[in-house]
Amino acid sequence: TDTHSVSDFLSGADQKYGAKQAKEMIGNALQKHIQTIDPSVCEPGDEDAFFVADLGDVYRQHLRWKKNLPRITPHFAVKCNPDPMVLRLLAALGAGFDCASKAEIEEVLKIGVDPSRIIYAQPCKTQSYLRYTVKQNVRQMTFDNTDELYKIKQIAPDAELFLRIFTDDSASLCRLSQKFGASMENTQELLTLAKKLDLNVAGVAFHVGSGASDPSAFRKAVSDARIVFDQAAALGYQLHTLDVGGGFMSDTFDVMAPVLGQAVDDNFPSSVRIIAEPGRYYTSSAFTLACNVIARRTVEDAATGTKSYMLYMNDGVYGNFSSIIFDHQHPVPQVLRTTYNKDGFNYSFSESMTDSGYASAEEGRLTPPLDNDRATNNVVTRNPIEYSIWGPTCDGIDCISSSWSSPETLDIGDWLYFDDMGAYTKCSATRFNGFTDRHMTVYICSEAGARALVGM
Ligand code: PLP
């Protein structure tokens, strides 16, 4: 049953149940798709890597957000994963959106979101995009330097401006402060110029770095923001919004959220509106990626005779594994289907397999079995096999894992899958070497409450 309720979730009773059910549904969706594909006869592209997206996971993350940070309205950072179904769901749940470009703003407006729910959170904006925001009535935007203020004065003089301040992002995965954020020494000058230009400064923004891990970075940033609010007040501004940016991760959220919530309450009265720009937090765990093994190479150590195997998949760092390069991720392979594994996802090796059993399992295979998976005397002992995992392009940096060991025999045509592939993956995929950057997504929804919201 999937009738577990939002109130159960909010009481904390239901989190495990939802996740368990989701795992099963994802497994079924992966299996269902690969069962339709026979890589030995299919058309080009049929065996392409594909995603399974669980919108129920996004929904659970939203409820978790509301439970832990009730005062802070999330504005989903579209850059992280501009998946149309995710955008639709979050729009229906009442979230706002952080957009970095004209295309992202367009995408969000297209699904019927009011422009007042969008923040153009890019301190250095393209002029033509700025003209577009004026036409579309998107007024909230960030800035962090004087030249941007002059540009805004020219093109969007009625904008609601958030001064983005510098943060200590040293404990984050992807540092942003080397590129953006006014230092605390410059905020007075920026506010004074904004006043002189008769611009509407409405708030302060910051970002503690993507994949932040030190809660004290939030504490410091919030107290710096308080100083800027006071500087602005002295100049006659009445700032009304604090934007605490992104940087949230599912794994550390329960530690970060209370620190941030407390810092906000300690520094800002309830009349101040608090928003955030979470990206990764919402989508990382919702997307699972399945990839097909297109080739295998045996490597024998000349000295020891030990064999290892290079597996080449049809997706790599120029595709959805761009997160390895840009987002410092280490995706972990899991076996979705091996040719020896007739049961697919729920692999269990319960029966002893005879030599003759193996002979029949080899039928229809391209390659002979690996050394380790032969049965002797009716007993199968499986030593872990050492693999490295590679992408499909001709470039040597296209490596997903230099060392992965598994007891499973993996062959050409088999499938691997990877959890947590929903953040900074497909959005930065390229078509290098002629491979596709448009991988299919199979949508499922493990939460009944979310299904109706996206018409599933
Ligand atoms: N807001 C801005 C301005 C960003 O640059 C980013 C990420 O680069 C985000 C929000 C989203 O960050 P995260 O995915 O860490 O929540």
Automatic annotation (TrEMBL):
Residues 55-283 form the Orn/DAP/Arg decarboxylase 2 N-terminal domain. The modification N6-(pyridoxal phosphate)lysine is found at residue 79. GO terms for molecular function: ornithine decarboxylase activity. Keywords: Cytoplasm, Decarboxylase, Lyase, Polyamine biosynthesis, Pyridoxal phosphate. Its EC number is 4.1.1.17. Pathway: Amine and polyamine biosynthesis; putrescine biosynthesis via L-ornithine pathway; putrescine from L-ornithine: step 1/1. It catalyses: L-ornithine + H(+) = putrescine + CO2. InterPro entries: Ala_racemase/Decarboxylase_C, De-COase2_N, De-COase2_pyr-phos_BS, Orn/DAP/Arg_de-COase, Orn_de-COase, PLP-binding_barrel. It is found in: Cytoplasm. It is an enzyme of class 4 (lyase). CDD domains: PLPDE_III_ODC (cd00622). Its cofactor is pyridoxal 5'-phosphate. Belongs to the Orn/Lys/Arg decarboxylase class-II family. Homodimer. Only the dimer is catalytically active, as the active sites are constructed of residues from both monomers. PANTHER family: ARGININE/DIAMINOPIMELATE/ORNITHINE DECARBOXYLASE (PTHR11482), ORNITHINE DECARBOXYLASE 1-RELATED (PTHR11482:SF6). Catalyzes the first and rate-limiting step of polyamine biosynthesis that converts ornithine into putrescine, which is the precursor for the polyamines, spermidine and spermine. Polyamines are essential for cell proliferation and are implicated in cellular processes, ranging from DNA replication to apoptosis. This is Ornithine decarboxylase. It comes from Acrodontium crateriforme.
